[in-house]
User: Which sequence fits this backbone?
């Protein structure tokens, strides 16, 4: 981590529109004005990138043949597909670890600089502080979702979380915190951000978080913790501010993505790190969407044409969902409707749960072609909501955390891969759901490794 952060000091200079750095050298200008800080935080490659291991390890796709398998050059990518214990082989500088800590460093640098100022009467600087706190929370959540066990209230105080770096000091190292402490910090930062950020987002700059984004993020976090009352509470708070859905009948159906970075349903934009392209980007079709998943979409479901296209060999692949390149991992209103519906079903409010679900899903069908989803009881309603969650939130790096939390509840979901006749499987609650810390990080900081 020290080496990564040291290099960041140099990178900050070149990432902004003017000569900015975060160390007190006499010949380098530190951020001082609102514009300076905006230049720093608008570096989307740093502030709006999340890991990719969750996406390539989940059960939404398959690699169809040996030729495609051999064409994947990344050892990490191949091993993550098969859930192997030795995930990285000899590969180092794993961006799934370093990229979120880059975000944390930038965020801490802004927070530390603002701590030296009196911003109590400066709303613009308070918004900047809120952005930094949100980004730090967002990065810590990305890390704990991949490199730690699923949140379990019974064991969270002793389960290993991630190092909570809360200072921009380069020489300061931190041991791994517990999962409980990690989530406590994420929630603390997100709540503080919600108090400081502007209520509404700029529709042309959805790389910037807002109060709506803070509430939507908290709904996602609490859902992953299986604290469904609080997940619903924050979903409500977000939807009270913004709950717009798009009628998919109005979207263009092209061979590329029907969406943009600032699509209407997007609340906050982030995307997967620029890695693992051969199995995550539609322009490099070395994969196919799981046929069992594709078959869940009915013929009149517009997502079949808007989300997917056929590869040259006839497999369904992704065009791009709420993004134009690497997988979208941000926050959007469709996720909020699904969180609200799931939480209602879990507290036996079947009819209300189905109302939210049908309100969302109807917008995805050919006009006049949607038949309302029904269920005899709340348990059946929950099953249907979780199925629709798979369909609606495909390719957004959310399936991995869903698998972890649902298996803790006894859903007993086993993942399987077939590579040239050899079967691989991932059992529910397996330690292989927790990614290993990259070896170069272990050597540098001496933090404790995950057991797989």
Assistant:
């Amino acid at each position: 981590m020290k080496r990564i952060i040291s290099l960041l000091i140099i990178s900050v200079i070149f990432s902004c529109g003017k000569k900015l750095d975060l160390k007190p050298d006499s010949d380098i200008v530190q951020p001082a004005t609102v514009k300076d800080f905006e230049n720093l935080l608008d570096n989307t490659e740093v502030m709006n990138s999340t890991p990719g291991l969750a996406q390539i390890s989940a059960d939404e796709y398959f690699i169809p043949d040996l030729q495609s398998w051999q064409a994947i050059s990344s050892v990490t990518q191949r091993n993550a597909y098969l859930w192997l214990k030795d995930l990285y082989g000899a590969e180092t500088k794993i961006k799934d670890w370093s990229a979120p800590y880059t975000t944390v460093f930038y965020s801490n640098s802004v927070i530390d600089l603002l701590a030296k100022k009196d911003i109590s009467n400066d709303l613009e600087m308070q918004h900047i502080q809120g952005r930094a706190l949100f980004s730090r929370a967002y990065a810590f959540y990305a890390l704990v979702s991949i490199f730690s066990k699923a949140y379990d209230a019974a064991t969270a105080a002793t389960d290993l979380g991630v190092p909570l770096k809360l200072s921009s000091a380069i020489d300061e190292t931190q041991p791994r915190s517990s999962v409980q402490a990690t989530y406590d910090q994420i929630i603390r930062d997100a709540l503080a951000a919600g108090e400081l950020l502007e209520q509404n987002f700029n529709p042309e700059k959805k790389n910037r978080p807002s109060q709506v984004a803070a509430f939507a993020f908290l709904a996602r976090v609490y859902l992953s913790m299986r604290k469904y009352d609080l997940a619903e509470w924050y979903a409500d708070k977000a939807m009270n501010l913004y709950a717009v859905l798009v009628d998919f009948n109005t979207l263009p159906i092209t061979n590329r993505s029907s969406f943009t970075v600032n699509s209407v349903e997007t609340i906050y934009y982030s995307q997967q790190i620029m890695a693992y392209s051969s199995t995550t980007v539609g322009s490099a079709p070395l994969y196919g969407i799981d046929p069992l998943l594709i078959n869940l979409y009915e013929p009149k479901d517009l997502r079949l044409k808007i989300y997917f296209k056929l590869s040259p060999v006839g497999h369904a692949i992704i065009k791009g969902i709420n993004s134009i390149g690497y997988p979208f991992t941000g926050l959007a209103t469709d996720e909020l409707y699904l969180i609200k519906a799931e939480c209602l079903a879990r507290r036996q409010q079947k009819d209300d749960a189905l109302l939210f679900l049908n309100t969302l899903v109807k917008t995805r069908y050919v006009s006049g072609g949607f038949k309302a989803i029904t269920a005899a009881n709340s348990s059946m309603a929950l099953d249907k909501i979780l199925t629709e969650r798979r369909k609606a939130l495909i390719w957004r790096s959310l399936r991995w955390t869903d698998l972890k939390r649902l298996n803790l509840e006894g859903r007993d979901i086993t993942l399987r891969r077939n590579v040239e006749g050899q079967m691989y499987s991932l059992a529910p609650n397996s330690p292989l759901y927790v990614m290993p810390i990259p070896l170069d990080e272990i050597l540098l900081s001496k933090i404790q490794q995950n057991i797989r």
Summary: The radius of gyration is 21 Å. The chain has a mean pLDDT of 91.
